[in-house]
Amino acid sequence: METRHLTCINCPMGCQLTVTLDGTDVVSVTGNSCKRGEIYGRSEVTNPTRAVTSTARVSNGEIPVVSVKTSQAIPKGMIADCIAKIKELEITAPVHAGDKLVENFCPGIDIIATRNVSRKTQP
């Protein structure tokens, strides 16, 4: 049996979790004050995921970058690929919050804009 100690990040409580594993099988999760803590503990030791937030370049925009994020959490092992993909992007303004900038980066997960960027006005 293996024991891992984690701090839950699903809510401000920050419960101190103890996850007991038998090989790759989760035997128990303790220390959580809600169901979300148990779900987090199980997933963190078997298939950890994270939401990615960053910025992408905007051409012809009133500002030079737009904030972006993944539409859902992605496997931790794919974060570097996601950041590399975002670094390649150059979106032409206008950009609207919710625009899909990269569809299906991972199956069913898009990279989306999180704010509006208007087109630069010509003087």
Based on CA atoms alone, the radius of gyration comes out at 19 Å
H/E series:
EEEHEEEEHEEE
Low-confidence stretches: none
Average pLDDT, all residues: 95
Strand order of the largest sheet: 8-5-6-10-9
Overall form: elongated
How do the helices and strands line up, and which of them pair or pack?
Layout (H helix, E strand, L loop, with lengths): L1 E6 L8 E7 L2 E6 L4 H12 L2 E2 L2 E7 L5 E6 L3 E2 L3 H10 L1 E3 L7 E7 L2 E5 L10
Parallel strand pairs: 5-8
Antiparallel strand pairs: 1-2, 2-3, 4-7, 5-6, 6-10, 9-10
Account of the 3D structure:
By secondary structure, the protein is of the alpha+beta class. It is built from two helices and ten strands. It has helices at 35-46, 79-88, and strands at 2-7, 16-22, 25-30, 49-50, 53-59, 65-70, 74-75, 90-92, 100-106, 109-113. The strands form three sheets. A five-stranded mixed beta sheet has the order 8-5-6-10-9. Strand 2 (16-22) and strand 3 (25-30) form a beta hairpin. It is elongated.
Q: Outline of this structure?
A:
This protein is α+β, with helices and mostly antiparallel strands.
Give the key terms:
single chain, 41% strand, five-stranded mixed beta sheet, alpha+beta, three-stranded antiparallel beta sheet
